[in-house]
Amino acid sequence: MATTSRAEIDDGTIDADASDGVRARLAISEPPGCAVVEELTGGAVATDVQWADTAGDTVEQFRSRRGLEAESIFVADDESIYRLTDDGGDCPCRWIESLGYPIADVTVTGQPSQLVVTLLLPSPESIVEIVEALESRGASVRLECLVRSIPDDDESIVVDAGRLTDRQREVLEVAYRMGYFSYPRECNAAAVAEELGIVRSTFAEHLAAAQRRLFEGIFDER
What we know:
By secondary structure, this protein is of the alpha+beta class. Helix content is 29%, strand content 33%. The protein has 2 domains: 5-150, no CATH class; 164-222.
């Protein structure tokens, strides 16, 4: 977890009580420059990932199963707390922080290698900025879950992207980025279909199926 998170919330960079705030979980496949993922073997998972800059280097600490080659500084039951030192590298977590968004939680898996970050963001639009920044650097990003709070009703809307097929997720992402869901709309169905390389009727079918799955997840669980 980034050491700047609390400060950025306190100084107003992130409004934790914003009515349109969201909690998002992003999965980054084969994250470039991630020192922790390089220490994980045999499908090991790292949680409670934290880091701090000191003397020009970055000290990272994480929890995982016992037996890894990284330096173990504490042992509890079947897990250990590990510490490693690196040069900070070009990790996706750094990219996200450089945009001014603190990271709430980090989980890393070894095989297949994946970095999962949880973010508390001021608005859904922030997700687009983060994903575009990551993809511009060659990272493969997937939105796994989006939770938007509604303080007046004291409840939350949970959007679970895991309900969607890869194609449905792609259709929604492209349509959203092109402004299809904006009001007023910034593009029409024909433009989105052309961007996806499909005909308009196929786009409509994918869109309807994706929306139905998402709505089922929202209304069936209330």
